[in-house]
Amino acid sequence: MHGSKPVIIMLDEIGKAMKAVKNVLLTLMLEHRIGDDYLPAGSIVFGTTNLLSDGVGDMLEAHARNRVSLVTVRKPEALEWIDWALSNGIAPEIIAWVKQFPHALASYTDASQKDNPYIFNPTRAGMGAVVTPRSLEKASHIAKRRAELGDALTISLLTGTIGESASRDMQAFFTVVDKLPTWDAILNNPAGAKLPDDTVARCILVFSAITRVEKETLAKWMVYLQRMDKEWQALFCTSVMKSESKQAFCIMNKEFKEWALANQWLF
User: Fold this and answer.
1) DSSP 44
2) CA-CA distances (angstroms) from residue 33 to 11, 69, 168, 190?
3) Best label site of 71, 169, 173, 235, fewest CB within 10 Å?
4) pLDDT in tens, 96-122
């Protein structure tokens, strides 16, 4: 505040703050001023808080509400979350599960989702763990430790993280994963390694490849991938091109370029 460079101030969870704290911030919200000190010209002040209907204690009194413009921000959609997950080390079976159950990231504010068993809904009594982008990230850590935890403990931990409906549905995905060819088996024999018939299995396999493929392994994976239907080829190629860390070596790879040229309408 003491220099000439504009600043950005975020008033996180402003609706949950004590009244005395809100009162101190009133001039900051309206006039960009605290006491006699003004923010540098061009500064931005904004806040975040939950919807009142969430029932978690958010409220802006009328005089504070009148100082701001209120904007409702939607939740990320499933495909948006998947794009993030692919670049942030989320377990492929978690990503594939979201791909198959995109309504797991829907919002209770959508009237059509009133019976959705996965999501938070303040009108439903006795709610415990639910599926959110945050809880899915936590679930990923559990999924990666399944071999050490065992089936019973894995499901118990997932139930306490994303809810029973989601954890039981996800259990079927783990069964599929355990029957997939290993990454080493695919790379050692891309033209002959087992190709799963199950849709869920292929989905998990493709997302796993997106997270694991590197410059040295891409050519062999492309041989294996092109044994699958076009939709799975497209899912891999369009998704991996969204990865900042992988895009560069993909566009330099001979097999990938040949596939892209033959299917350029996808891009």
Assistant:
1) E
2) 14, 18, 52, 64
3) 71
4) 999 999 999 999 999 999 899 999 999
